[in-house]
Amino acid sequence: SSLPEKKMIFKGLTVNKEDMNKLMLTPLIHYPLPGGSALITFEEARVAQRIIEMKEHMVELSYGELEELDKCRVRVQAVPMDILLPSALEIRLTPSRRSILLSALPTLDIPRDTLLDKLEIFFSKTKNGGSEVESSEFLEDSDQVVLTFAQDGVAELLIEKGQTQVPIGKGEYEVKISPCVTGDISNLRLQPSRCPRTVLLLGIPDVLSEESTRDALEIHFQKASRGGGEVDVLAYVPAGRTGVALFVEDTG
User: Which Gene3D superfamilies has this protein been placed in (predicted)?
Assistant: First the structure.
């Protein structure tokens, strides 16, 4: 049967079909650093490459107007900073039978625990389509909440609604309800990737204080006459201690 003509305006977003099944990963790599080492990131990749090619560097720890015999120098080794990044990743997704994901939550001047309590109270009532709430928590680094019910079937009916009006304080806010999906890595392959602007320095003796050693390293590797250049970040781990470096996507 024919349908009546109706003018419509599309206000959604269009995407390429090839992009529908792609997963975008943001690098966030934790790398252990041994004692007596330092990570130095230069503003230019060519400076880092030049420092690595020189391999060994005599770093003067006692800058100032001292006699040549009184100056303290140490030999440090410069090596490239290689980290492992995923080259292939397969994730098995499993929808939860008892949990829902709440998003589009209002930004209110109340503690997070208070907001969780109000959401629990609302969704624990059968008149709101809910049931006994087993647990609730904010996703890490997110403004979304995972709500888990004690019974099966409750989450499915709420997900079908898609959204609901939740009274919080003196207002009423529309909250989005989505399925809660967990992912397990079923296959992961890694490949080494070199940080183009970062150099790892090894063999730094524990001679000066932490701050003085850091300053001496930065002064040395900023000098063009020593093959260096402008330093963006420098992190130093004294001998006898360990550290963890956090690598993120290079946007500069």
Answer: 3.30.70.330
Does 96 share its domain with 173? yes
Lowest mean pLDDT among 58-72, 102-116, 158-172: 58-72
| Residue 12 belongs to a domain | no
Do 122 and 167 contact (CB within 8 A), yes or no?
Answer: yes
Residue ranges making up the domain that contains 143: 90-186
DSSP assignment of 115-176: HHHHHHHHHT-GGGT---EEEEEEPTTSS-EEEEESSSSHHHHHHHH-EEEEEETTEEEEEE
Say yes or no: 82 and 96 in one domain. no
Q: For 175, what's the count of Cα atoms within 13 Å in the CB-facing half-sphere?
A: 29
> Would you say 146 and 101 are in contact if contact means Cβ atoms under 8 Å apart?
yes
Domain-ending residue, one of 186, 208, 240: 186
pTM strictly above 0.70: no
Question: Tell me: the pLDDT tens digits for 105-123?
Answer: 998 889 999 999 999 999 9
